[in-house]
Amino acid sequence: MQIRDLKIKGKTFLAPLAGITNLPFRSLVKEYGCSVVCSEMVSAKGIFYNSEKTMTLMESTESEKPLSIQLFGSDPISLAKGARAVEDLNVADLIDINFGCSVKKVVKQGAGVALMKEPALTRRILTAVRQATHLPFTIKIRSGWDTSGDQAFKIAEIAQDCGVDAIALHPRTAGQAFRGHSNWDHIRQLKSRASIPVIGNGDILCPEDAVTMMDQTGCDAVMVGRAAMANPFILKQIDQYLETGTYQSPSNDDIFTAMERLVRLYVDYFGEQPACRMLRGRLSWFVKGLPNASVFRKNLTQIHTQNQALTLIRDFRATGFRGEVRFHE
Question: At how many degrees (to 10) do helices 306-318 and 293-300 cross?
Fold first, then answer.
């Protein structure tokens, strides 16, 4: 597919996930075949004030391209300056504005899904950002604040008028958060009205779901978030399935190899102890459904070093342990 002048090989996007889609995780998913990866939400005001923490969220490598940087905020000037700064840093291939986050602290700022109640402000924001950057420019939205989808269609209409190049729709309401089911018919309706690419998001748990969504809605590509946390292979599987009608499922060895790779990526980027604290939760995603997974997760709570993490993975890979491990420094 193509978004403005950016040609994309494949039809899969990694959804932005706060605290998850950091550089190490994006690198892993990219290595396993994702078409486009996306950063965590980046505060436009944080860029404006040159916050070190905010700037760190935009660190990238050439190997993960194409990369989308997602900005959030509610002030047109800050968002425009943030978009300009992202372009000047030369790290991103796309800029995305978040219109979908329903987390209270974001909504209280008037950002995220709160913007879907503000069409006039939305127009000022999108106009300002479009004028500030030459990069391909996308937005990610929800159905809105009720079940009709009307707010999504209105925001999409404004977006097209303002020069937005593609729209990703997660068809749940603001109140649903991630509960219940997404209404794929909203994606179909949006696609029937839009003259720019539409990316479908929501309830894609396996490659078959992605193909079903595309068949039912006509969307141009799919975006996957939570399912990729436990299965970083899923985006490649989706593209394989779209191209050939079949896909290769990862073996247990593939899963354990991915876990070891994630350990090294995290340690190299965050440092050993911070990485291990985060990996206690991250590695548990990969073993869901495997025998003795609960024991593995319990043992993960004790890891403090890269060697301990790798030892756990290798022991599980080799024999599937059944007892609690106690590490000795």
Answer: 170
Two structure tokens written together for 104: 């209270």
Q: What is the pTM of this model?
A: 0.93
Domain membership of residue 304 (yes or no) is yes
On whether both 221 and 257 belong to a single domain, the answer is no
Same domain, 309 and 210: no
The structure tokens 């102890």 sit at 273
CA dist., res. 203 & res. 194, Å (int): 22
How far apart are alpha carbons 270 and 310 in whole angstroms?
Answer: 16
Supply the residues annotated as catalytic: 101
The residue whose two tokens read 């959804």 is 15
User: In terms of Cα–Cα distance, which of 203, 205, 207 is closest to 181?
Assistant: 203
The model's pLDDT over 56-99, given as tens digits with 9 standing for 90+, comes to: 999 999 999 999 999 999 999 999 999 999 999 999 999 999 99
Among 212, 244, 276, where does a domain finish?
Answer: 244
Domains in the chain, number: 2
Give per-residue pLDDT as tens, 313-326. Answer: 999 888 765 544 44
* Cα-to-chain-centroid distance, residue 283: 18
